[in-house]
Task: structure prediction
Amino acid sequence: MKIATWNVNGFRAREAQFVEWVRGERPDVVCLQEIKATAEQIGETLTLLPDYWNYWHGGPRGYSGVSLHVRKELYPARPAFSHPAFDVENRVVQVALGDGRIVASVYVPNGGKDFGAKLDFLEAMRAYVDVVHARGDALILCGDLNVARADIDLHPKERKPGVIGQRSDERALFEQLLAGGLRDVARSLEPENDHLFTWWAPWRNMRQKNQGWRIDYVLASERLKVTSCKVFPEVGTSDHAPVVAVFE
Result:
């Protein structure tokens, strides 16, 4: 199973890129964040990708928003899409794949306007992981988590202790997520890679210089076996790159 996640930073600006990428990469499940549009505003894309079940969860004010896409070839019947209790501001959608696996597309608040709300969201997400595992399900949590887990996840010139996204309290909550039985898939496969970034500030050629942050993740229940996880920095014009993980 191939699972992809991408913060598109405005779907309507990236629609053609998304369709081209999905047709070429053929992921089984796609998680998008920051779609900034409602289902009505992007309805045409539903016909451009007829081989996917689609669920769009965008706010009416063009803010935030997430979506999930599941390939019909793998799941002929439409799976159950829903929202866990901690969903706020159109930031979370989950799908039960019917085989004991739950996939969630998550967009964690940046925290710049309300840092307390970000910590509350991370704490609620930690409780959500416990609930899913208590049911006996496996979880694949994908998305823009807006936390650079450790200094290795930042270019040396981007390391600024105390800056939101690098604070110790955020990182502690991230580690609690993992302590709940999740694996940071990309880091587990490349534990020493200090050039593994998924977001670059959109100025001064940061992307070309790979002077970035790793804030987009695939986190998976430890019992799930993963064979690869790759960042695609060459794809699209969002300030985030897609991340694709392949599971047995």
About this structure: The chain has a mean pLDDT of 95. Residues 2-247 form a domain with the Deoxyribonuclease I; Chain A fold (CATH 3.60.10.10).
